[in-house]
């Protein structure tokens, strides 16, 4: 069904950019693709060469780069992407350094998503047949990531993958198939090793309560000594 839908979308696409976004084969040689790639290069260079403490400048540049970027989002440089404009990110997102988003197709990231360093989101695909591949056409399929997701470092997500809500992906995983909500998944290829349970929530809520009590005790001691 999805392949038939993509074929119909490709048949009605008016140009290479629309074919690219539809998931059908295209060649990246149109004026629109060149324009958007040069725009990306300008913005990414400005981000990656900005001063170490230029936080507001980088926030402005990332907001210009992406299709959308939610409240409280923060990305560490260096960063790179294909176009930027095809990436849509929710609130309170964090990405550590050296992340790469190849957003030839749309990348959608939900709220409260955390990425470790060197996470790669790769929407492009190339034909399996060597002759067709060498002749130039390529394609892409969208990546969708839900809310409350954490990726360890060096996670790679391939084209067409959907990751649900409340998911943890272990460091170094290569995700080539969908991952359901409320699960911990690791490996190459990445696979679910267990669900996230109420016991996990109870344990971590208790650890968080312990931390807050410790923090409050420090504050109380400072107040007592300052009197």
TrEMBL record:
It is an enzyme of class 2 (transferase). Its EC number is 2.3.1.-. Coiled coil: none annotated. SUPFAM superfamilies: Trimeric LpxA-like enzymes. Transmembrane segments: none annotated. Pfam families: Hexapep, Mac. Residues 17-71 form the Maltose/galactoside acetyltransferase domain. GO terms for molecular function: galactoside O-acetyltransferase activity. It comes from the Bacteria. This is Acetyltransferase. It comes from Bifidobacterium erythrocebi. The lineage of its organism: Bacteria, Bacillati, Actinomycetota, Actinomycetes, Bifidobacteriales.
